[in-house]
Specification:
mainly alpha; 172 residues
Length: 172
């Protein structure tokens, strides 16, 4: 493994600070007693992270007009290109399905049964990461905390975990 120079260390420090700021804003935005706000804001964060991941891997992203892609198109494109592992695809799509339920059904109510449908999409690897985040919460853990943690886990995996792995591989 090569040693890092001052410029590379500074860049890494800047990246850590940027992630810390994103993390604080994310928590402020989804820290709510209202599941609709958690879902709508969380889905926006996930969509933005998917869009940024796609743009990062395209030579000419302006040709594709990534900002005009619908969520379903965007997610299918990102996952079909292998930019993220397939084991979180179904979970990402289920969060968007819940978001659409809120957007198109005035009487939609997110509850424990709806949460279980989301949880049933968790792959074993995703569930392990999710549970490690969930263990950091104080009891009692209710459906809203589980929902916030699931959305945080998805977002964190998209913007952080896979970026760290890619950056590590590039520096080897």
């Amino acid at each position: 493994m090569k040693e890092m120079n001052k410029t590379e260390l500074k860049k890494m420090e800047d990246n850590v600070l940027e992630f810390k700021n994103k993390l604080e804003k994310f928590h402020l935005d989804i820290n709510s007693e209202n599941p609709m706000q958690i879902i709508l804001k969380g889905n926006l964060y996930i969509e933005y992270a998917l869009r940024e991941r796609l743009k990062k891997h395209l030579k000419n992203p302006e040709i594709l007009e990534c900002d005009k892609l619908a969520f379903n198109q965007l997610a299918k494109l990102v996952f079909s290109l292998g930019l993220l592992p397939l084991d979180i695809f179904e979970t990402v799509m289920e969060v968007n399905h819940i978001r659409n339920s809120y957007s198109h059904n005035l009487k939609y109510n997110f509850n424990e049964e709806e949460y279980r449908k989301l949880e049933n999409t968790f792959s074993p690897d995703f569930k392990n990461i999710y549970l490690s985040f969930l263990r950091t919460h104080k009891y009692p853990i209710n459906t809203l905390i589980k929902l916030q943690t699931a959305i945080f886990t998805i977002w964190q995996l998209i913007i952080n975990r896979y970026n760290v792995i890619e950056n590590f591989n590039e520096n080897m």
